[in-house]
Design a protein that fits this description.
The protein is of the alpha/beta class. The protein contains 15 helices and ten strands. The protein has helices at 20-32, 46-52, 55-68, 82-91, 111-121, 138-155, 173-181, 201-209, 214-227, 236-248, 265-279, 301-306, 345-362, 377-398, 409-419, and strands at 3-5, 71-75, 101-105, 126-131, 163-167, 184-187, 254-259, 287-292, 311-320, 367-374. It is globular, with a radius of gyration of 22 Å. The relative contact order is 0.16. It binds 5-phosphoarabinonic acid. 5-phosphoarabinonic acid binds at residues 77-80, 132-134, 137, 140, 193-195, 277, 405.
């Protein structure tokens, strides 16, 4: 289980002030499926359900793609994109020689980005995994139309064998197209919203193609969700949710999620969507932002240390690096760094993180540390379960429905009108 360390909040509140009764109530509401949006809480059972049904199909499709293609083009946006990208960049930041390259498209409308991607793809054999629960989202739908044409030109009648559609089990444009064309399909479950779907085929197929051990991800998630069902203030999800809510109600409207691993960047993007879309509604909600340390200490460090005191800082820490590096000794010590010679980079990084923590606390920024044992499949699964559960609890504590996103429709309405979409 991940650990939450609230010692960096001690000068801002007393632990006794945290409203664990509200966290307990929110957890009960979630588990009983009696709260707002309860028909979108299937993610709580998702790992168990996946194990029994779909995992074999996902692994077979991934093996097929890995054996015949040099690349997988994943088409999707928001919850149909960020989890897979977060996982792949965290766990496979550099693909091995046997791993297909994974390209992500359909998450914007930039022609330059698409052309750059196609240039990188070149003449390589590739497959497409189009992911859209609704099947109607404009960005992926336009990209998919473009890729259907490219596939047809490249593979002719066999193009349909190179398309894998992850969508609703029964309805939607993508499902109808898939049925008509005979594409292999995977399901986005009805009771799981996009931003909670990374442990479904939405995330698992691209992850498996990238060489991630998805069985370990699923097995860890099953165990983690069981452990996180703990109904006690010792539950790290309660601690994180209660601390965030306390701080929000005491003037802290922005939370920055930081990590000392650059490979965490897209996990932070995933987290931003999870928390922003779940909590930012009805005129309330913490604004989720992210930083990459130590790089951003040289850009955002000034603001964090000295800007308006409205921040909460949450740091994700992996206990062990995959491989370490030690600082070499140098005769003459011209750069003055021999005081570090022989030290591991991981130890220097840990010391830096402790120095940053105490400086930021002294500067008036409460600090929460979320610790994960290692940057691997198990660590990824634990983090996902922890952040999803804490998000739902925190959302219910704040009084919103954490599972809807009515606000994202406003821009779509305008855009479709301006683009002349028929009614
Ligand atoms: O969390 C969400 O529901 C959204 O981010 C959706 O995942 C995103 O809008 C993509 O939707 P769809 O999968 O229907 O294309």
């Amino acid at each position: 289980m991940v650990k939450v360390d609230l010692s960096g909040t001690a000068t801002f509140f007393d632990a006794a002030e945290l409203d664990f009764a509200a966290a307990a109530q929110a957890h009960r509401t979630l588990a009983d499926k009696s709260g707002a949006g309860s028909d979108f809480t299937g993610w709580l059972e998702l790992p168990k359900r996946i194990k029994e049904t779909e995992l074999k199909g996902i692994l077979n499709a991934a093996a097929k793609i890995r054996s015949r293609s040099k690349a997988l083009v994943v088409i999707g946006i928001g919850g149909s994109y960020l989890g897979a990208r977060g996982a792949i960049e965290l766990l496979r930041p550099i693909p091995s020689a046997d791993d297909p390259k994974i390209f992500f498209v359909g998450n914007g409308l930039s022609p330059d980005a698409l052309n750059d991607m196609l240039e990188q793809l070149g003449d390589d054999d590739f497959d497409v995994n189009v992911i859209s629960k609704s099947g109607t989202t404009l960005e992926p739908a336009v990209s998919f139309r473009i890729f259907r044409k490219i596939l047809k030109e490249k593979y002719g009648a066999a193009a349909k064998k190179h398309i894998f559609a992850t969508t609703d089990a029964k309805k939607g444009v993508l499902k109808s197209l898939a049925d008509a064309e005979g594409w292999e399909c995977f399901v986005v479950p009805d009771d799981v919203g996009g931003r909670f779907s990374v442990l479904s085929a939405v995330g698992l197929l691209p992850m498996a193609v990238a060489g991630i051990d998805v069985k370990t991800v699923i097995n860890t998630a099953i165990a983690e969700l069981e452990a996180l069902d703990l109904r006690s203030p010792e539950n790290p999800a309660w601690q994180y949710a209660a601390a965030r809510q306390y701080l929000y109600h005491n003037g802290r409207g922005i939370e920055i999620l930081g990590c000392y691993e650059p490979s965490f960047r897209f996990m932070a993007e995933w987290w931003k969507q999870l928390y922003g879309e779940s909590e930012g509604k009805n005129g309330i909600g913490i604004f989720p932002a992210s930083v990459e340390f130590t790089a951003d200490l040289h850009s955002m460090g000034q603001y964090i240390q000295d800007g308006p005191r409205t921040l909460i800082e949450t740091i994700v820490r992996f206990e062990k690096p995959r491989r370490d590096f030690s600082v070499p000794f140098e005769m003459g010590d011209a750069d003055g760094l021999n005081y570090l010679a022989g030290k591991n980079l991981s130890d220097i990084c840990l010391t830096a993180s402790e120095a940053v923590k105490s400086a930021h606390i002294a500067g008036g920024v409460p600090n929460i540390v979320v610790t994960v044992p290692s940057r691997d499949e198990a660590g990824f699964a634990s983090l996902v379960c922890f952040f999803e559960l804490a998000c739902a609890i925190s959302g219910y504590m704040s009084g919103v429905n954490p599972f809807d996103q009515p606000g994202v429709e406003a821009y779509k309405k305008n855009m479709f009108k301006m683009l002349g979409k028929p009614e």
